[in-house]
Fold:
Amino acid sequence: MSSTFGDNLKLSIFGQSHGPGIGMVLDGIPAGLAVDLPQLQRFLDRRAPGQGAYATARHEADTPEFLSGILDGFTCGAPIAALIRNTDTRSGDYANLADCPRPGHGDYTAQVKYGGFQDAAGGGHFSGRLTAPVCIAGGLCLQWLAFSGIRIGAHILDIAGLADEPFDPVSPALSRVSPDFPVISSQAGAQMQSRIADAKRDGDSVGGIIQCAVTGLPAGIGEPMFGGVEGHLSRILFGIPAVKGVEFGSGFTAAHMTGSQHNDPFTMEDGQVRTVTNHAGGILGGITDGMPVIFQVAVKPTPSISQPQQSVSLRQGCSAPLQVKGRHDACIVPRAVPVVEAAAAIAIMDLILGNTQTTRRK
Amino acid sequence: MSSTFGDNLKLSIFGQSHGPGIGMVLDGIPAGLAVDLPQLQRFLDRRAPGQGAYATARHEADTPEFLSGILDGFTCGAPIAALIRNTDTRSGDYANLADCPRPGHGDYTAQVKYGGFQDAAGGGHFSGRLTAPVCIAGGLCLQWLAFSGIRIGAHILDIAGLADEPFDPVSPALSRVSPDFPVISSQAGAQMQSRIADAKRDGDSVGGIIQCAVTGLPAGIGEPMFGGVEGHLSRILFGIPAVKGVEFGSGFTAAHMTGSQHNDPFTMEDGQVRTVTNHAGGILGGITDGMPVIFQVAVKPTPSISQPQQSVSLRQGCSAPLQVKGRHDACIVPRAVPVVEAAAAIAIMDLILGNTQTTRRK
Amino acid sequence: MSSTFGDNLKLSIFGQSHGPGIGMVLDGIPAGLAVDLPQLQRFLDRRAPGQGAYATARHEADTPEFLSGILDGFTCGAPIAALIRNTDTRSGDYANLADCPRPGHGDYTAQVKYGGFQDAAGGGHFSGRLTAPVCIAGGLCLQWLAFSGIRIGAHILDIAGLADEPFDPVSPALSRVSPDFPVISSQAGAQMQSRIADAKRDGDSVGGIIQCAVTGLPAGIGEPMFGGVEGHLSRILFGIPAVKGVEFGSGFTAAHMTGSQHNDPFTMEDGQVRTVTNHAGGILGGITDGMPVIFQVAVKPTPSISQPQQSVSLRQGCSAPLQVKGRHDACIVPRAVPVVEAAAAIAIMDLILGNTQTTRRK
Amino acid sequence: MSSTFGDNLKLSIFGQSHGPGIGMVLDGIPAGLAVDLPQLQRFLDRRAPGQGAYATARHEADTPEFLSGILDGFTCGAPIAALIRNTDTRSGDYANLADCPRPGHGDYTAQVKYGGFQDAAGGGHFSGRLTAPVCIAGGLCLQWLAFSGIRIGAHILDIAGLADEPFDPVSPALSRVSPDFPVISSQAGAQMQSRIADAKRDGDSVGGIIQCAVTGLPAGIGEPMFGGVEGHLSRILFGIPAVKGVEFGSGFTAAHMTGSQHNDPFTMEDGQVRTVTNHAGGILGGITDGMPVIFQVAVKPTPSISQPQQSVSLRQGCSAPLQVKGRHDACIVPRAVPVVEAAAAIAIMDLILGNTQTTRRK
Structure:
């Protein structure tokens, strides 16, 4: 529980936003994986702060130091530990939060749970900054998956009602997502960036939806009931701060469809079973059916806004106005895109490593 | 993984739709809980088949036999095992499915995963019938939670676009849900039932959305990151067949809101911290904030429809038409309502039992 | 925790000695295993009560009913559930135990832990009878392991200081163990049986040591540190009632050896790496080295003896004499032999299913 | 699995003997524990190398840097991460080991498991050096346990047949263990040190037995069957390199006792249930009975000896002589004493945090 994840691949995340450092231990990654560190760094850079008008002004290199598990460029079978030092911190900005919790944040629940001993600065262990070690782990998993032809890509499907072109669920073109601002339609991307800039100017924030596709997965991955792909993915996805919804394939839209519309007809293509449509998002009975796994993640608007808000003084037991200071993203959706990819990679690799093998075929 | 769930309360589900029996083992329930068996049976009856025009014609009592764990009306600390015998089965209806999988069902993925050895009759272990033992476990957890003043209630929020009145997220009136057809607005309920009857007549099916509320939960339940309430609940909820989406509070709607709209202002009420609105669904940073936990679950339309569909013959490696026989619900949403309550009860009780206690308060 | 075991193969045990029934759910066994039920029954019969002068007079068939997971003679991939009904019970023998706990038994600790709600009859969930479902699970695992050439056999190494011939640790001849009384030396067996009869006559009991060998295991099974073969095996072995010690290879004897005596020299045999001796018990660094895995298990004397003993009255808070009635084995070691084999089979199969695969070789 | 341990308190160990650093993440430790860092350092110093004639000549400060989880001297509820940099390494000593494995070491099994990619230097992740982070975690747990009056102490019971005075199992005097060389009898200690010096001079090594006592534990801790105290403790104890046996109370000696000798009579003492003797080692039915928990751990002689040994050349596929170089302890038992205490503290605290609470008492 808590900040650990995985049944076969075991991830343990540590750190607070303004403590000495953040990092992760990843236990169970097989030996012999060639680790491409520059590629990993490029992946981490997609999440890093300070990348444009829409992001926080906090600047940190976020280059991990690997403390174990990698030898001469290959995984050696031992747990991989990585550390990112916190360098650019301003804990003074947060002095008041233990008494006067920020609406929409974990300040109040941490106060209740940890009895006042929690590290409140910058959200402490609840900070979005903790997604950096998730990306280290996920970036390594992505490299392992790529060796088996499995690829994971995400894009912004929606920000504040402005919609990108969705993936073709039968054949998602991951390469069409722009490397700069992660959308397929550059026009939609420009509108979104403009909308984020407006929110920033207003001292407000906006939320959005991220769509992710996993291609190259064979049929048969996942277990029935509570071991299904949906449940396993959702558990890690809800571990990303600000995620409030997860749906697979047609998801909530399926509630408005009939069975005859929603059922994906089977067909044979080059001797392979495929489905004509992919409302199921590549998952039937919790198990992959060989079609792309497609899912959407709802991200709430950043709770840290500079507009005056109503809070309470816990010490005085009365209402109290609050004005949040500090540097915050007006929209975290763009930076959350690689985090969703990383989380998916960790969960999928964990499922593959633990996949029950049939003893033989009838 | 697979058909087990829980970190502190350990649930193991067994059985196939048309095998000798289905059941569950629930390990970790504390000793000394007075078990109200008639109340449990009434809870199970809400899920049972054969309850009206919208449900399958299959009739089974679904009365569990308790094999262990209950002594003289109280839990005794040992694992609780319960068995429901399968009595009314017609496995002949399903003879063809191993070759010609039903679209939208787990027939094909089971065939790939289990190499032809799976029990295909009635969906085998993937059958919705396996939600009966989930309800036994959940019904026991509901009784344990009720002793601490925690209540869980769900209703149909939407079927095929026909919407019920939603719960007031700040103060959900669980008692307003009708015991007959689980909606708040009887008018909406009548429309839904009519829509289901239409689908049945057309040999089709419809999906829907279930909304669930948990009241009486203290603040501070749940762990950060991957141990959060959202992730834990979603893992078990996606274990319910046909669930394709889970969202908390405003969920996907949050993607279209600004931070100033979505953030729930804190206030003091009778010396207690409360929020004025509840867009967060009672969860901040993965941890309960003392407000009702509210979530929605998307249920896809029943894949078993009697209209002709396109499938494949796995043996012959070519397309093949399919007409599904057997008795099927034109909409499983009404029967899934208590299953959602049961699943939520199991996950919440598991979180409470494993809740990290603060050593002391500052 | 508690009555569940396994990371990949998940075992859940249920039942009380004198409740309606006992049984198990085994989740994660791969599909396609041909189950030889008569062979399984012969394995269970080795543990069954009523098998000679040394065993309890309680007679029960202990034939499991399989409720799920087996179809047409093969595992179908779904969890396997099995139930044994309790038929021959005499709960009146145990009426006094909740007040006056038996020395050496779990009566008192159960009373403290479960607050008086525990099922005290016959030891309830703590009874040695609960090893019957362990043997069902283990018997299935033994059949799965046999397909890969892995065999597990145990014998009584010592009862009350009377020693059997030990296994040759380099090449243990499992077939030399007698099917009647599980020893290699029939002379030692006769002495042991005589010693047990003496104890029975005296209203007393004796303990012993079981030695177990696993042959055919490839090198490389097990994980470093807490995932090692020794730790995994010991966890399940200590789950067998009355087990108080577990050692691998030379075990406690190694404490009296020098490194030059204890280190097993490597050698090449038919192109295979082998060791000349096997003080390590087939495990180096927690991981199998390809030699037989050998371990010993200490079993305490049965605590249920008919001699008068000193106990306390919990209700009155004072010392109280106790005379235990009922039918009890004067030595459970012979019946524990197949239980040790079963437990080892479950742990070994779990390790094999979860074995981390190297991505490639240098 | 692998290098992680714990159900409620989650420990993850990382590092290789000669990599950049070693360390641990401990997730689940409650907030509000005052951490006494000087006391922790004194505990770590007991395990540190370079402490006398019997230990390795490798000198390292082994002072951990805490990266997270501690704020202003108190645990803050977030995972605690600690790092020890490796400074004094001589990897050249180990260049040959990948081809020519050391008898009694994990070199060969690591080679098989990790396909040649493992970090062979100094045993890599299998090195005894990895017990330093176990001691960091255990040292923190010891401080948490001490707040509830629970104390853990160990001593050398035996080295090469030279025996220390054992703990009184009913009332072990932990304070009688010498802080310099961890024995009760200074005469036995002198003999042991002399025996170790002899082994060192001979280029050989010796093994031994460690006895550990846990006092102050309330009755009722632990779960039945596989969740028992013995199984949980043994799993972590076998994770300590060189441990080959674990026994509780009378352990293997119980095999030579009768029930009337072994059963511990109950008695009342100041209104408390106690046992007159403690052959059970404080555990009945897997659950603590309120008496001290006593156990012994067998430690094999250090496999690294400088005498010539027989090994194989894996590359050439033939026998090959081996002379191990490098600095090694002629006996690791003294340094393993605090490691056993640390491991016990972690397992006991994990059990306490996960202890099932009875809903109420009859």
In short: The first helix of chain B runs from residue 37 to 47.
